[in-house]
Amino acid sequence: MPSTYTLLVATLVLFSQLLWSSTVWSTSHLLQQDRIQNGGYIIQKNGEVIDSMREEELFIPASTIKLLTGYTVLKTLGEGYRFQTRFYLDRNDVLYVKGGGDPVLTSESLLEAVKAMKAQGLSKVSKYVLDDSDFQLESAITPGSENSVRSYDVANGALAVNFNSIAIRKKANGQIIAGEPQTPVTQIAREIACQLPAGTHRVNPEAFQLTGNTPSHLRYSGELLHELMKQEGIDSTPTLTTGTVPSSATLFYIHYSARTVREVVQSCLRFSNNFIANQLILVAAAKRYGYPANWEKTRQLLETTAYEDLQIPAGQIRIEEGSGLSRQTVATPTALLRILEGFVPYRSLLPVKFDAQVKSGTMKSIYCYAGYIDSRQGPVLFALLLNQSRNTRDQLLKSLVRRIDRALISSRQYKTVYGN
C-alpha cells in the first residue's frame, strides 16, 4: 500500500499535470500569435484540434503542397513503380529515344543505358530521334515559373536529363569545362556558357537564346547521349531530330529508373525539387487518365485526390500545379491538415527539423511548415502558413516543439510517481 505522503504527492502532481496539460492543449495558444502578421495555422492531437488561427482562410502554401503531390503519386503509381525510357533501333542505325517522364534520368543512368546497349551489340548510331510525345504540355513553361536562369525554374518534359538543368564551369580565360565530373561538355552547354560570366553555374537552358528549333531539353538529352556513346567507343553521329517512334523500329533496350517512386518522392520532399514534383504528377495523371500527360490532367488528378479521397471542401484548396511554384495555388491550414492526415503512412519520407518531421514551403514573403511532432499523448499534426515579409516560422516551430516537450515531462513525472 502506498503511504499517505506518496498518495498526496501523486495527487498534487496529477492535479498540476492535468491543469498544465489543459492549459497547453486547450485554453492557451501554442504559437505566439504576435509573430504572425499575415498567416494562419492549425494544430491537432489525436484527431482533435487543440489550437488554430485563421484556419479556414486561403494562403499560398508554396512547397508544402508537395505533400498532396507525393500522396497522390504514391496512391496512383504504387510505391514500387519504376519509370521507363525506351530505345528503338531501325535498319539504318537510327536510334529512337522515347521518354517516359523519368524524373531521375541523369548522366549516370544514361551511361548505364549506353553500356547495356553496347553489351547487346550496339556499335553505331547514324542519327538520334527524340520522342517526347508522352507529354503534350499546354506551355513549354511550367505554371508559376518565371523562366529565369535558375535551376528551380526549369521546364518539364517526357525526355529530360539531369533535372533539365545544365552544370557549367567557365574559367576566367573563357575556357569551358564540365560542371560535374560525370557529365561531358555538350554543344548546348558551350552556347549557354558564352552568355554567362566566369564561375560555376547550374542553369535552366530554356531561359537562353539558342540556335536551332529543337526544344532545349530534347537537344540537351540527345547531345549528352551522343557524348556518352563516343565515350564508350560507339560510332555516333551528332544528328538530332524530334519525332515519334515508327512501327518499323524495333525495341532494343528499356532503361528502368534506379529509384522506385517511394524513393523519388522522398528525394523530392527532402530537397523540394520542383521539376521532380511535376514530373511525378504528370506521369501519374497520364496513368490515371491516359496519355499524353498535360497540365489539365494533373490538376484534375490532384483536385480529385483532395476533394474525393481526402474530403477537402472545394473552397479550401485550389491547385495550379504539383510543386507549389505557382502563387495561384492556395490552401487553408485546415486543408493542409487533411493532407497530413492522409500522408501519415508516408511521414517517414519527410526530413526532420527541430525534432519535427516537416515539409517546408518557401518563396518571397512565403514561409510555411507542415508536419508531425511525436508526443507521449499522441502525434501532433500542424500546418503553419505565413504569407508575410517577416520569416518567423523557425521561432514558431521551435516554440511548439518545446511546449510539447514540456507536456511530455509532466507526463513522465506523473508516471514516475504512480510507478507505471
In short:
It is built from ten helices and 18 strands. With 420 residues, it is an alpha+beta fold.
Describe this structure in words.
- This protein has ten helices and 18 strands.
- With 420 residues, it is an alpha+beta fold.
- It has two domains: 15-77 and 262-418, DD-peptidase/beta-lactamase superfamily (Beta-lactamase, 3-Layer(aba) Sandwich); 84-258, no CATH class.
- The strands form five sheets. The chain has a six-stranded antiparallel β-sheet with strand order 2-1-18-17-16-15, sandwiched between helices.
- A hairpin with a 2-residue loop joins strand 16 (356-363) and strand 17 (366-373).
Key attributes of the depicted protein:
single chain, 420 residues, alpha+beta, 2 domains, six-stranded antiparallel sheet, five-stranded mixed sheet, 10 helices, 18 strands
Low-confidence stretches: 7-27, 408-420
Topology pattern, helix = H, strand = E: HEEHEEHEEEEHEHEEEHHHEEHEEEEH
Helix content: 25-40%
Range of strand content = 15-25%
Spatial gap, N to C terminus: 15 Å
CATH architecture verdict of the largest domain: 3-Layer(aba) Sandwich
The number of distinct helices, counting runs of at least 4 residues, comes to 10
Secondary structure class reads alpha+beta
Q: Domains counted in the coordinates: how many? A: 2
* Widest sheet, order of strands: 2-1-18-17-16-15
Largest sheet: 6 strands, antiparallel
Shape field:
elongated
Q: Cα-atom Rg, whole angstroms?
A: 26 Å
- The CATH superfamily label of the largest domain reads DD-peptidase/beta-lactamase superfamily
Quick one: CATH class of the largest domain?
Alpha Beta
CATH fold naming of the largest domain: Beta-lactamase
Report the count of strand segments: 18
